[in-house]
Write a structure and sequence with these properties.
Blueprint (H helix, E strand, L loop, with lengths): L4 E5 L4 H12 L3 E6 L6 H4 L4 E5 L5 H8 L4 E4 L21 H20 L3 E5 L11 H16 L3 E6 L4 E6 L4 E7 L2 E2 L6 H10 L2 E4 L5 E2 L2 E2 H11 L8 E5 L5 E2 H12 L4 E4 L2 H11 L10 H6 L21 H9 L4 H11 L3
Parallel strand pairs: 1-2, 1-4, 2-3, 4-5, 5-8, 8-13, 9-12, 10-15
Antiparallel strand pairs: 6-7, 11-14
Helix pairs in contact: 1-7, 3-4, 4-5, 6-8
Length: 345
């Protein structure tokens, strides 16, 4: 089946804006569902893009928006829960991660079945696992299981989170799951955050300094999504997406410091010191820099066991080829972006 009309949840986010732009450039008609149209103002100007204010947690609204679509892409995700609490307790499974990652995924696959849409691309995360100590990774792992079940038909399946074999009433969807490592690019919430911290502090205590990542560029993640849409070879597959090189967190922070001209002393924290720093940061008002749940996630390396998936006929960009362009504040383009931000444009 030819894929022409695509509905995207999370299209106004970091990966979403890049993906929508790529799909529009390829001539696709794209419907972006957002809770606030103003948040997607960059996309409104694209000629084949329709931005719709909608409550994506409303089952009936999803069914209405999915009708007439050829594919659905779910990019919705959060890194932190709004509340502060014991993330190492089972009750943490019933927070925002439950609503955003698990319940929303269940509603998406059901709405697709009701609307007669068969192609689903789903954003997960490297390290997602239903038994992870991290509530974030745990919820992502459960969501993956729901997506895989949606690709089945009526079969008996060992459904671990329902405690034993169950008859799974799948929808027979053509699903593809993507599990990227940390994603970098202009406007990211990772390297840019450390750039800000390095400009503020002469010494940086660093929790999880030994944790390993394989950063992948946002444009490459978006292209993998776009390339897989009409490729039947990707049906039923799960792809880990990593950049060409793995780094420890300390190496990444040191590299950012070199790029921006702020070589700082980095103080690696041990396991328990990292835990207590993360706990203290949970009480910081506003956007969280780190939580205990992040600490638990970083106990497992965030790297791929194999190289870039051969089904995609391009190679991912190296961090060193892209990051300096947006991290250095003295480049003409960076100054231009600063003027735009100051003008609220």
């Amino acid at each position: 089946m030819k894929i022409e009309r695509i509905c995207i949840l999370g299209g106004s986010g970091f990966v979403g804006t890049h993906l929508v732009s790529q799909l529009a450039a390829r001539g696709h008609t794209v419907r972006v569902l957002t809770h606030r149209r103003e948040a997607a103002k960059e996309l409104i100007l694209l000629p084949t893009v329709e931005v719709v204010e909608a409550d994506v947690h409303d089952q009936q609204e999803l069914i209405r928006q999915f009708r007439g679509m050829d594919a659905v892409i779910n990019l919705v995700g959060i890194l932190h829960e709004a509340r502060v609490g014991r993330v190492d307790l089972p009750s943490a499974r019933r927070g925002d991660f439950q609503k955003v990652h698990i319940e929303l995924t269940r509603k998406v696959v059901h709405a697709m079945g009701e609307a007669g849409v068969h192609r689903l691309l789903h954003m997960s995360a490297l390290g997602a696992h239903p038994n992870s100590r991290s509530a974030y990774q745990r919820s992502k792992g459960i969501a993956e299981a729901l997506v895989r079940e949606a690709g089945m038909r009526h079969v008996e399946h060992e459904n671990w989170y329902l405690n034993g074999p169950k008859l799974i009433h799948g929808y027979g969807l053509d699903v593809t799951i993507f599990r990227p490592s940390v994603i970098f690019g202009r406007g990211d919430a990772f390297l840019s955050m450390f750039a800000r911290l390095l400009k503020m502090f002469p010494v940086l205590p660093l929790a999880g300094a030994a944790a390993r990542f394989a950063p992948v560029h946002v444009g490459d993640v978006a292209r993998a999504f776009a390339d897989s849409l009409a490729n039947v070879a990707t049906h039923g597959q799960t792809y880990d997406l990593c950049g060409p090189r793995a780094y420890s967190l300390q190496e990444l922070v040191s590299y950012v410091g070199e790029v921006i001209g702020k070589r700082r002393s980095i103080l690696p924290l041990g396991k328990w010191a990292s835990y207590f720093q993360a706990w203290a940061m949970e009480f910081k008002p506003g956007r969280k820099l780190m939580t205990r749940d992040n600490h638990f996630a970083m106990l497992v390396d965030n790297v791929c066991s194999s190289g870039w998936p051969s089904v995609f006929d391009f190679q991912p960009a190296a961090l060193e080829a892209v990051a300096p362009e947006y991290l250095r504040a003295d480049t003409p383009r960076a100054r231009y972006e600063g003027y735009r931000e100051g003008a609220h444009r």
